[in-house]
Amino acid sequence: MANGNDSLLGIDLLVIPNMVAHDASALDLVGRTRVLRQRLPGTDLLEATDLQTISSRENLAQALMLRLLTARGALAALGHASYGSRLHELIGRNKTDALRNLCRAFILEVVAQEPRVEDQAVEVTFHPDEETASSFVFTLAVKPRAGDAPIGLTLEVGL
User: Fold this and answer.
1) pTM reported for the whole predicted model
2) 154: left (phi over 0), alpha (psi -120 to 50) or beta
3) pLDDT, tens digit, for every residue of 70-129?
4) 138 near 157, Cβ under 8 Å?
5) 109 near 124, Cβ under 8 Å?
6) Which helix (H) or strand (E) holds 67?
7) For 38-138, where are the alpha helices, taking DSSP H only?
8) Closest CA relative to residue 9, chosen from 151, 153, 141
9) How far apart are CA 145 and CA 131, in angstroms?
10) CA 62, CA 10: separation in Å to the nearest integer?
11) 117 neighbors 143 (Cβ within 8 angstroms)
């Protein structure tokens, strides 16, 4: 169902069910079955499968996650060479404070790319107690331009 923020924050296909993914294998279009009032013409079907959508604040959170998880340049062949993040450049490097600061810079670049949020992140907080020797865990909070309360998401980035 559409609401006032849909025009500002958008509607898109749902690809991160429950806003949780441990790797890219869970990222795919999500279907939903709906019961029809009458049979589809020429068939005996009383059900149809649609692609599930996501809207408003949840759509913006999903868009930020996908932008962070997509390597910049991966969509160049589709005409979106600058879409994505540089977080993939951290893979294989030794975990240091300097690398954590570089991770923060890459996160802030993504925030600056997203036109539906204020240019600066409200918060980027790392959670060292939840990290492994080869990962960073951070929470990103951004303020939608729609004037809503900040949206937060937590991600783990493997090195």
Assistant:
1) 0.78
2) beta
3) 999 999 999 999 999 999 999 999 999 999 999 999 999 999 999 999 987 789 999 999
4) yes
5) no
6) helix 56-69
7) 56-69, 97-113
8) 151
9) 31
10) 11
11) yes
Distance CA 12, CA 53 (A): 6
Cβ atoms of 50 and 31 closer than 8 Å: yes
CB atoms near residue 133 (< 10 Å): 7
- Give pLDDT, residue 87: 95
pLDDT digits (tens, 9 = 90+) for 126-159: 999 999 999 999 999 999 998 778 999 999 988 8
- The three-class DSSP label of residue 95 is coil
Q: What angle do CA 80, 83, 85 make, to 5 degrees?
A: 150
Q: Which residue has the tokens 């490097």?
A: 93
